[in-house]
Write a structure and sequence with these properties.
Blueprint: H1 8-11, E1 23-24, E2 27-38, E3 43-44, E4 49-50, E5 54-56, E6 63-66, E7 69-75, E8 79-80, E9 85-91, H2 93-97, E10 100-103, E11 112-113, E12 116-121, E13 127-130, E14 134-142
Antiparallel strand pairs: 1-2, 2-5, 2-7, 2-14, 3-4, 6-13, 7-12, 8-11, 9-14, 10-12
């Protein structure tokens, strides 16, 4: 049936090397791979973009000790969105309860890669997050009909 969320046990096949603990009733958790801090401004124009430079934040004993602020994160898991679905990424509620959120964009049909997102640590005391911790949940929605084309943007195959 089209236009419905794919249950986690079925969506697991879209997340390379996922483990049982990642499977949720309505999606699949994805794990934190890397954290980076922004070094300068980015630029977006009608016909071009320039992403800001970033520097890796080094985990200590596998833990990221993050001060309040905005970070670019890269997920550990490789996601392959099927051609008849769209992926939507949400922060896990545990992060929200810690004063941390993740902002993700839509993951188009046909996208494959180790995606990136924005992590915002709003808690004035910071947060400690283990590398490999489940930080977001991917939900896949079946499209009513096949799209006229699959994702072919500049982020296709990123971080593979």
């Amino acid at each position: 049936m089209q236009g419905l969320a794919v249950p986690g046990h079925a969506a697991r096949s879209y997340i390379r090397d996922s483990v049982d603990e990642q499977v949720q009733p309505a999606g699949v958790d994805i794990r934190l791979g890397e954290v980076m801090e922004f070094l300068n401004e980015g630029e977006l124009r009608a016909s071009s973009k320039r992403l800001p430079d970033v520097r890796p934040v080094k985990p200590v004993d596998g833990l990221y000790r993050l001060q309040p602020g905005a970070y670019k994160i890269r997920f550990l898991d490789v996601v392959a969105v099927p051609p008849d679905a769209v992926g939507i990424c949400y922060p896990r509620s545990t992060l929200l309860r810690m004063g941390v959120t993740i902002s993700c964009a839509v993951w188009d049909p046909g996208y494959t890669g180790r995606g990136e997102a924005l992590m915002i640590v709003a808690n004035p005391h910071g947060a400690v997050i283990e590398q490999g911790a489940r930080v977001a949940q991917m939900v896949f929605i079946r499209l009513e009909s096949r799209p006229s084309s699959l994702y072919r943007g500049s982020y296709q195959g990123e971080n593979l």
